[in-house]
Structure formats: structure tokens, C-alpha cells
Amino acid sequence: MSGRSPGQPGDEGGPDGGEEAGPGRSRLSRRGRGRGQALNCSSLRWEPQAVASVWASGDSGVVAMNEAEGLRQRRPRRPQVITEDSQAQEAKQGSTYSSRVFQMTFVMLAVSLTIPLLGAVTLLNCPIDPQPLSFKEPPFLLGVLRSNVKLQQAEKLFENQLIGPESIANIGDVLFTGTADGRIVKLENGEVITIARLGEGPCKTREDEPACGRPLGIRVGPNGTLFVADAYQGIFEVDPNTGRVKHLLSSKIPIEGKKMSFVNDLTITKDGRKIYFTDSSSKWQRRDYLLLVMEGTDDGRLLEYDTVTREVKVLMEGLRFPNGVQLSPAEDFVLVAETTMARIRRFYVSGLMKGGADMFVENMPGFPDNIRPSSSGGYWVAMSTVRHNPGFSMMDFLSEKPWIKRLIFKLLSPETVSKFVPRYSLVLELGDNGAYQRSLHDPNGLVAAYISEVHEQDGHLYLGSFRSPFLCKLNLDLL
């Protein structure tokens, strides 16, 4: 032992011996202190500048008073232990904060864009007043309706020489059709020959259609003349040899108080006396057919024209887009494709049920266009669009949601909407009782697309189209 008691001069390690100022510690000035000298507490001087420098250095240690000796001492700061968990927690807190900032920014941006958009949508006009429609579940594409690629075996004829050959008729081996530019043409020996024009040019845009004319349904009469339904002009008789055109019925003449805005298809009796034809709408024209379908307007009619008396009668009304028509072989009823409702109606024109109507086929796997006779005694039906099952059918989905239709046509033009119509092509053969006999498909519309009519002649099917720039020819022996 040294023999010194605590607190004696020279005891540098004791509490009253003082400690040399080190890093992070308070500095006390010691004057006159030396080895062997007693500590004179009165000689200690507090230096506030030194303390300030300690606080400025960021040392958060606590300064405490040693009550026993009256000296200020620093209590050492408890060391901070950094672990992976603490780092993860800090990162999580930072990430959460960033996420909240992003969410708030996104919400504010969405609100700032949505409010003016909603305002604009509210102010925008909608060209249609869609009606709610109700459909049954479409039939499954199974059995006779099972998907195949038989239509892809067809060959294209007169490619890029015809635009929209909607309907087809034949006299012998010569085919006749109408085109989107208002012409009636014959297809003979590999050539396209114009024999008549129903309207006046130019015929380049949809705005030109009313003046240019748009031939749709075409038939051959008993005298070898052509009967043509023009969507804008009415019904014509055309001499295929001379090209002479006779205007039988003008669409400008109101029928029972309603104008004819969309004359579509026609069928004629064997003696040529009666012509049955459809007026698809008194509101919409052919160029607005998509608006007609999406609105679900029920202002279509089936009419009868007497070529002798020139009288016109309304046989059926309240139809939703009546389209193709076909007399039965016995001429006792007329079939009418009601496109919007995916069904075919039957109206009796003779016999015990004359004047009555019933359903021939309903809930079809697509939306029917023209109807033409088949060699088996039944009927060929071209389907303009398919109702997929299994799968998604846009028309079925939108049928009971008029508010969605309204929104779509406020924001998009009909031309834009038409681009979303599936190219799936389907042709059905029906028996004389309406039962499905067979189906021909082109699931992707690779060869035959937008089919409007099926015309059978000499073991071949000729496929018309309301849009494609060609005809298709399909050999029945290959099916």
C-alpha cells in the first residue's frame, strides 16, 4: 500500500484527484496543482466555452454533480447497439414513408384527372339511346356447332377488285353482286364488268354513301332481270344485258307514316308478283349499322311490295334490326333474320296461318345476316358475329348494361369500336325445321371474314362479305 488515504495530494486516480480531460469529457482548469500539493477547490475555474464546445460536438452525455466532492463529472453515454433488425426497421420505416408519399401523390393525380374527365364525359353527347336487352346463355359450340377450320379451305376470287360484295345471284355460270361504291357488276370469265350504277359518285367515304347508293340484297326474277335492294335508294330492277335501271320503290316515300332509312334484303315469289323486303330501321342508315345494333332499336319492319299494283304493306314491325329474308320453297312463309336478337322469325304469307308469326330459330350462336336456300331443302345462314360459349361474348356482356354502351360511344367513334369486333367467321346450315345441320368456321377470319351471305351453286358455296375486298369460293365436296 502507498500509505496515502484517498484525497491526499498525488492521488490522481481518486475522485478528488481529478481526471485529465480526454476526448468527450469536460475540461477543468487546474492551477497550482502539482504532485504533492493539495487540491484547492477554489482555484478551479468553470470555462463555459469548453462546455459549449462539448455540446456542439454532438456528445449527448449527461453532466452530473458529484455531491460528495462538489465536482462536475460526465456520466458516460450508453452506447447504441446497431443490429440487422434495427437497420431493417429503419429501412421499413423509410420505405413505408416513401410508399405513403407515392400513394398520396397518385391519389391526388388520379383525382385531378378524374374530375375533369367525368365532367367532360357528362357534357359529351352520346349518339345512341341504348335499350336493355336480355339474352339466354348462348349454345355451346359443341356437336354440330363444334369449332373447325373448314372455311379456311375457301379460295379468294377477284381480290382487291371488289369492295364489300354483300349479296350474290347467278344466271347460269355468271355471278352478279353489288359493291360498296354503288355498282352492280357481273363476274364472267375472270373479269369484273360494271353493268349499272344506282347512285351518283364520288363514292370514296362513308359520307358519300347516301348519294352513291349501297346495293345490298340481290335476286334474279322470273324474267331474268335482277331485283336489287339499295340501302339508301329503295328497290330497283336491273336488266343484266342492257344495264337499264328501273326504280320500283323509292325509300323517300313514307310507308304507313314512317320513312325507310335502311332497306336491306329482299326475296321474290316465283311469278315475280310479290317482293318481301326488310327496312332495318326508320332511324339509322346503313353506314350507322353498328349504332343500330348497339342501341337495340326496335323500329325495323318486314314489308310486302306488289309489283303489279305497286302497293306496299307492313307485315311485321317492332323488329330489332331485321336483316336477311327468304321465302320457303312452298312460298307459305318468309324467314326474317332479326340480327340484334340472335334469332330468325317466321311470318306466314299464305295458308291457314296467314298473317301469323312465330319463332323459327332462337338463341343462335351468333348474329344472323342473310338467309339463302340450300340444295338439301334447308337454309344457309351467314353469321355476322359469333357469341362465344365457352368464352366471352361482348354483345351478351353489354346487353343489360346500357350505361356502359353509352360511355363507350361517348368516348369512341363507331369506326374505332368496330375494330374490336371479333373476326371469327361462322356459317350455319339449317334444316327445313330450323335444326342445325352443320357449321363451317374460320376462327381467326384468316380467309373468310365478315361473311354476309352464302350462295350455293353447282356444288360450291360463294361467300359474300359486307367489308372484305373479295369473294370466297368453297367446294362442298371437300367438306
How can the largest sheet be summarized? Answer: 4 strands, antiparallel
Taking all residues together, what is the mean pLDDT? 85
CATH architecture of the largest domain: 6 Propeller
Uncertain residue segments: 1-44, 50-71
N/C terminus separation = 121 Å
Instruction: Classify the helix fraction into a percent range.
Output: 10-25%
**Number of beta strands:** 26
Highest CATH level, the class of the largest domain: Mainly Beta
Q: Structural class per helix/strand content?
A: alpha+beta
Structure description:
The structure is a single chain. Mean pLDDT is 85; it is low at 1-44 and 50-71. The protein has helices at residues 48-56, 84-123, 209-212, 289-295, 394-399, 402-411, 414-418, and strands spanning 62-66, 71-75, 155-157, 168-171, 174-178, 183-188, 191-197, 215-220, 226-230, 234-238, 245-250, 263-268, 274-279, 300-306, 312-319, 322-327, 333-338, 343-348, 357-361, 366-373, 379-386, 425-430, 436-442, 451-457, 460-465, 471-475. It has 479 residues and is α+β, with helices and mostly antiparallel strands. It has 2 domains: 23-79, no CATH class; 143-478, Neuraminidase (6 Propeller). It is globular. The protein has 7 helices and 26 strands. It is 17% helix and 32% strand.
